[in-house]
Amino acid sequence: MSEENSNQVKRGLKKRHLNMIAIGGTIGTGLFLTSGYNIQNAGAFGGPLAYLIIGILVYVLMHGVGEMSTFLPTSGAYATFAGLFVHPVFGFAVGWNVWINASISIGAELVGGAVILQQFFPSVPPFVWCVVIGVIVLALNLITVKAYGEAEFWFASIKVVTIIIFIIVGILMVVGLVGKQGFIGFANWNAGTLMPFGFSAVILTAAGVIWSYLGVETVTIAAGETENPEKNVPAAIKTVFFRIVLFYVGSVTIMSLVVPFDQVSVMNNGYAGVFKLAGFQAAAVAMNIVILTSLASCTNSVVYVASRMLMALSQEGKAPKVFGKVNSRGIPAPAILMTMAIGLISLATNFASPDKVFVWIVSIAGFNTLLTWFGILLSHYCFRKWLVHHGGKVENLKFKSKAYPLTTILGLLFLVFIAVVTAISPSTRLTFYIGAPMMAIYFIAGVIVYKRGKIIPVKYDSFLNANINNDSFLKGGEEK
Fold first, then answer.
1. Which of 205, 220, 250, 297 is placed for a possible disulfide with 42 were both Cys, Cβ 3.0 to 4.6 Å?
2. Which of 170, 175, 172 has its CA nearest to residue 48?
3. Is the dihedral of CA 87, 89, 93, 98 positive or negative?
4. Which residues form the Amino acid permease/ SLC12A domain (predicted)?
5. Crossing angle for the helix pair 15-24 and 281-315, nearest 10 degrees?
6. What are the residue ranges in the chain where pLDDT is below 50?
């Protein structure tokens, strides 16, 4: 085996791994520990509505990136697509934004896990729990990609079963069959609680809700290490909207029905709180344990995404060469270690106010995700044009986005709208002031690296030759 071939990741993820990564990869801190905060800010109906609005956007987003990932499965995924179909500088900016954003997310997940564990062991400093969770996640990522996939499979299974139980218990509480409150019905939904702060608050909350969906793109990055990605990636993506409605909108709606919107606490009520109201004290404790495993799962997933993104950036000349190295087990160890090192810097938040800093991290990461999602939609728009320009046939795509280009264009406009609203609103202006300069730095650095000729051009024909049958898409198989 040549050195070039040995320095590659391995396709060790199976269909069941990919399906569970797609289902549970996003369920964690963003849903369990911020849903109450979002309901408080948007109202009893406005909270679930904010999740639904972003859920529809995610549906459009995933179909676009799924189309490209099925066509060209690669660990660089949407950052590689941005550089290939839009411009190398744009790909540079999206890639570094993803990596830094993911590193921030690691910190948030670790802090969230420490907050949960402190409820069980109040005498142990949060710093200790952050280190413990971090070491476990690091080990899972350094073994093999199959170890990561297996861990995510079981973590996701626990999360899925738990949320289904939560929804069932919540419904029984609403109709009065469980809990001491008796029949609740829609008592917590009235004219004064549905959207008490107006629709503008729903839009602002939607910007924060983006954090809850952060990681939904993991399945497309995993395409580069999945067996038979042309079949397994579309199969996983096709269930995205169902999962969104059931797990996100469904569970948040139940919470808003059971608990008055102005009494939902960011850290202490939420999902565990609903079980307490139902009279299941043991279940409430178990829910905290489930949330803890979910946080470990999301940290595991985020480290995976960030390390593969850093590896891809390196292999495309957009990051130091050392981070593009892959060991004999197909693991990008340098990229994983660097990612985890940056993520652990967030432990400093424990010396401040963990709950407040946690919300700040969530807000900034959510705002910066706008660039990633904008990059995905813009790349998809350009991909279709690229394909047709080179003689490709859209009808031959093995997975096609629906209602193109209308949904893609509307998605782009909506992301711009959220960015503008975030920038002008006093309550979210800080996230814009921090996030926007970060984005500008990515582009400026990208221009410098590009002008110095450091970026390695990504040629579409190499992808085609490696991943699909040329003749199915290109007339004559050559660029015109």
1. 205
2. 170
3. positive
4. 17-453
5. 110
6. 1-5, 266-267, 269, 466-480
Q: What integer pLDDT is reported at residue 21 of this predicted model? A: 74
How many C-beta atoms surround the C-beta of residue 462 within 10 A?
11
Provide the β-strand partners of residue 13: 226
Q: Which amino acid is at 364?
A: I
Cis preceding-peptide flag for 260 (omega within 30 of 0): no
CATH superfamily for domain 10-450: Amino acid/polyamine transporter I (1.20.1740.10)
Give me the sign of the Cα torsion angle 321, 458, 443, 414: negative
Q: Chain centroid to CA 110: how far?
A: 16
DSSP code of residue 262: G
Structure tokens at 7: 């320095």
Domains of the chain by residue range? 10-450
**What's the pLDDT at 7?**
58
Distance CA 140, CA 239 (A): 27
Cα–Cα distance measured from residue 364 to residue 421, given in angstroms and rounded to the nearest whole number: 14
Give backbone dihedrals phi and psi of 20, rounded to 5 degrees, phi first: -75, -30
- Among 169, 170, 207, smallest CA distance to 188 is for 170
- And the tokens for 53? 């609005």
223: left (phi over 0), alpha (psi -120 to 50) or beta: alpha
- What does the alpha-carbon distance between residue 59 and residue 69 come to, in Å, rounded to a whole number? 15
The pLDDT score that the predictor gives to residue 456 is 78
Q: What is the pTM (predicted TM-score) of this model?
A: 0.84
Cα dist. 65→218, 316, 318, 374, 439 in Å?
Answer: 11, 20, 21, 11, 21
pLDDT of residue 95: 93
